[in-house]
């Protein structure tokens, strides 16, 4: 949960950088590139706010890499499972309810507010469409003929339904799946009617309603960031300006003046039908700016096109460089870096365990293993030669994270995964692969409860994240004997068995040792 919230916060930070950059560039771009290009430039910060892609080295990754591990993982706020031994001697594992920490509370708050906002937007939009359909009726006559003529001129194959809605104060385009163009009256002058239809059909052809839904989704996800509301307002403004530009480029000087006159004729407050519809009217300030753009339309030229391409490329590069925090997503119940639970090791025999190791890293565990293995008289144990058996029941064969390398979720660097993770049910028994000696039966912050078995040929096998250890250090075990139970202690998100194997002090792929 904490990592999901960190990803959202990093996306919000990266998107905010791009929003501020575009706002700073606005005076420079205003008279140099077209309104349509400026409208779609805002897609770059919009997508940055949504997509958690990131290079290996990025601004956001560098910032989060400097955070303390406990702050990132929430390690200080986790509780261990409650492990107890009943009187009959049988092992029982009773999971205690985890204490909800700061990250969990913040994640819950973010998710609830985002869900409520999204539900409200969907509900209001659905209610708006139902009201519009109820209060409108299909149009025919002169307006319908002109509408079909304009659709033919624009080469449109799918034509939205044209409807008359006297309750409206200005023309409107609404609907994604069942689009419609609504007019407040069919008795408008032909020049005004043509301008209104051209305007709304341009919105439809560009998919502006879908663009607005994308914006609304970002606002719901990043509700805590005031800059996303500024982003929405700027996109709504650019939407109308770019739509006007798209229409008037099809008109001559006389047509442009007629289009401006149509805007003045429809100069009323925008109808209050929600933010996800597209009305031709607007407030006085935006209307003034739209009229200025209509009268001062600039012809396309190569210099403006080159500048637009350059600005777009620079913004895309900035979007990549600022990066995002991409939490590593688990495959099945794979071992992760976030701490879910920590437990003290216990034995099913009801005896005291060896003191848990303080080793939080595999290297310290390996050093301790070398020390314990060197202290044993292997010749006196007379273990004999056996073929290693699979340490789980045959039904558990789902390898979620194999032996090899993986990309570190914070630094973006490639790191090694020195074992194999196999998904299994909680408390499934873990068996000794061969007759040997328990070198370690302990607990660490990384491995949780873990057991290491050694043999006289220099091989060791480690089983980690156990819910409980069933053997003690120094115990001699036989092939197939239960040595522990699958769990999710230590740094793990779900029940699984993490296996590591050493041969002559070198880690090897467990799949080779167990013939998986």
UniProtKB/TrEMBL annotation:
Transmembrane regions listed in the UniProt entry: 6-25, 105-123, 304-327
Domain of life, source organism: Bacteria
Residue span(s) of domain M23ase beta-sheet core: 416-510
The keyword Coiled coil appears for this protein: no
Domain Peptidase M56: 8-293
Keywords (A to Z) from UniProt: Membrane, Transmembrane, Transmembrane helix
Region (Disordered): 336-360
Entries under InterPro entries matching the protein: Beta-lactam_resp_regulator, Dup_hybrid_motif, M23ase_b-sheet_dom, Peptidase_M56
Listed CDD domains: M23_peptidase (cd12797), M56_BlaR1_MecR1_like (cd07341)
Polar residues bias locations: 336-356
Cited Pfam families: Peptidase_M23, Peptidase_M56
Listed PANTHER family: POSSIBLE SENSOR-TRANSDUCER PROTEIN BLAR, SLR0241 PROTEIN
Protein name per its UniProtKB record: M23/M56 family metallopeptidase
Organism from which the protein derives: Flavonifractor hominis
Lineage, top ranks: Bacteria, Bacillati, Bacillota, Clostridia, Eubacteriales
